[in-house]
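Summary for the steering committee. The consortium agreed at its last meeting that each partner would contribute one worked example illustrating the joint modelling workflow. Our contribution is presented below. We chose a case with several input lines so that the handling of multiple components could be demonstrated. No manual editing was applied between input and output; the record is shown as generated.
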Amino acid sequence: MILPGLGRLTPGLAFGLVILATLALMVAVPGWIAWQSPIAIDPSRALQAPSAAHWFGTDDVGRDVFARVVYGARVTLGLVAGSLLIAALIGGGLGLIAGSTGGIADLTLGRLADMVQTFPPIIAGVVLTGILGPGAGNLILALAVVYIPTFFRIARSGAVAEAARPYVEAGRAAGSSEPAILLRHILPNVLPLVVLQYVILFPLALQIEAALGFLGLGVAPPTPDWGAILEQGKNFILVAWWLSLWPGLFLLLSAISVTILGRVLKARWDDA
Amino acid sequence: MLALIAQRLAASVAAAALSALAVFLLVRAVPGDIVGQMLGQTGGDPTAELALRAFFGLDQPIHRQFLDWLGRTLTGDLGTSWYQGRAVTTMIWDAFRVTLELSALTLLISTLIGVPLGVWAGIRAGGPVDTAIQGFSMFGLSAPVFWIGLMLLVGAAAVFDWSPPFAYVGPEEDLPENLSIMILPVASLCLLQAAAYAQFVRGLMVNELRRDYIRTAQSKGLRPYAVYVVHALRNVLIPLSTFIGLILVQILGGVVVIESLFSLPGLGRLILSAIQGRDYPVVQGALLFVVLIAITINLVIDLLYGVFDPRLRT
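What follows is the complete predicted structure of the assembly.
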């Protein structure tokens, strides 16, 4: 079976796509999958092991872990997708301009990117969210800042390579304006690089988002975020393993499915 | 070669100085400092506030504060912690020893596991062994490190009825006790790093085994061991040595979460608690230290490229 844009359907790709579809469903319509409330508290049923009534058990204040994990998909995956999109737009846009114009702006932006990248990504995330304080807005800001330099470099090197091509020179000789060359010729060739980078970075950003949530630097409770559920589960790890198992498993499956997609895209686009 | 070193060094120093400045400004840009926290407990007294600000040097203009800090830092004095009253350099050193042990053990064990796995997968590319090792890589690279740590805690309690000791003990005080504290954190970090090694080395081996000289060696009738280990692996070692640098920087990041999970008093925990307590001298000092380590590792990688590949020396 040949899929449009992805090529032959291998077992690995099928596995990845099934998980992606499930996750998409959890993000789009969590209420169809989990009937219980992810935030309703009921101390009388605290820390119950998984059962028919509560598939993933309950947490220390009696919330249904299955519902929290299902509703958490939108929070966790949404935060990662959103911050990476911001990073791709800003970093990609700046890289495009820096790469095709060069000069002092290129140099300055390059040094700034160096500066951010001197920190290991997770440490940069900890510093930013730790100083700015927890909360969804700051988390998005921190993740975006961490990944802007990566997108900047990819878009920049793509733009530099394209700007040196003869057709760009020809376009200029034919009287096209610089913005027109940028949009019509350079952008379409750089865009696939940025999209592929987005898919490749997604699992990495997901790890960092979860780690920050786990360190208590993510979204504020009681919002169901996978990293935050793990942080809560840490304190009950030896009495209630189910609090920690499920959110981590979904982080793992999300990362695997996106990684598979990234590899397939990379293999196809490298051939092209 | 010298020009390359000088250029890299200059770029690294510039990046370190810029990030030091950025951290310095960032901690001061957010409302709420130590004076506010201290006065919050005793009630707001304007004279006390002024005196405290002067005591911590926070009454100075911000560029003076930075230049003062930079000047003292260049002489090796990172100041004193505002909460503990200890010299920041001592605190960093104490914490670094914990992180160093954690990182060194992780590097050693993950290299010993990951590299052979990668070589094996590369030799058997396309077969069931390769598939299994690639599956392991995918799992290790995708699973959150701290989640692995949590699951290992559950597993150790369930299978061996054992939990690691709570209080940290240094290796010089009681080595067996120290190792029993280190085993789960190291195992969590090793899974990720061994997976990274396996994937990287497999790719290198597959590329290397496609080369003509390998076919020549095989058609000469060399034993597989000679082909794989003497010929292919030797060429793989060059890019591998630079990959180790990347792994080290990754470990440095990974310890932040793992130290927090296993209550190890290392650099990651030091940075985290200092940030949350707004202990500016510790935040600035510890981050500068981490950045310098990361920069040094990257510099060494660049130089190794030059040593191994003479084409890059010009």
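Chain B has a mean pLDDT of 87. Chain B touches chain A at residues 11, 14-16, 18-19, 22-23, 26-27, 30, 138-139, 141-147, 150-151, 153-154, 157, 163, 249-250, 252-254, 256-257, 260-261, 271-272, 275-276, 283, 287, 290-291, 294-295 (CB under 8 Å).
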